[in-house]
V-type proton ATPase subunit a (Oryctolagus cuniculus), 272 residues
Amino acid sequence: TFPFLFAVMFGDFGHGILMTLFAVWMVLRESRLLSQKNENEMFSTVFSGRYIILLMGVFSIYTGLIYNDCFSKSLNIFGSSWSVRPMFTLSNWTEDTLRGNPVLQLNPSVPGVFGGPYPFGIDPIWNIATNKLTFLNSFKMKMSVILGIIHMLFGVSLSLFNHIYFKKPLNIYFGFIPEIIFMTSLFGYLVILIFYKWTAYDAHTSEHAPSLLIHFINMFLFSYPDSGSSMLYSGQKGIQCFLVVVALLCVPWMLLFKPLVLRRQYLRRKHL
């Protein structure tokens, strides 16, 4: 999974091609390079990881296409889904509007301005937007959170098979189960909130979308506004309070019960 997680961070189509070509060159000339017995420590380290570098390059090409990022520039492969023309025909834009404003914002609620999601990756029009970094950083952060939490849950799930194979039921009852409950109560819930916010708000209601970061912080502080207008959904306060309490109960479940059980078993064997 490391090459893919590296690509999520790297995410450049052009640089990914260069990395892939370099790795392919090392793989194809593997026997010749091995026979030369190069004593350069830096090259030897890179050469030893040639197959991992190859995977890193291939995955970087993939994530670079998702980010639509090639040497820090966007590729207009399918044509942008955004159109300026309806802002003149169906809205109140004029030539004077263009000349009198250094920055203008397209309104996706106007019919024809937004033609739907880009077929693959990020729409190239974001490359010329003034809020490009704000949008891309938010997108990449959310995607990294989703992939990271899935990766952690997968790793914890693998530990279950180890516990079953080595026949350690205590590790299951006082390790695996509370760990899964703890992670899903907090971080799994955060992933659900991310997807919910993506689907619950459209072009007409996006200006009222609350910040997930503020909501997640308030979840631990048990701080909620008096007005329910800023809530993501009805009953949010009760559900979040319940999840925090469950997560807190998992802490002593993980840290205290297993040592106490092991101590009791030790004393019982000692008295025998």
Notes: Residues 132-165 form the longest helix (34 residues). The chain has three domains: 2-67, 85-128, 132-271.
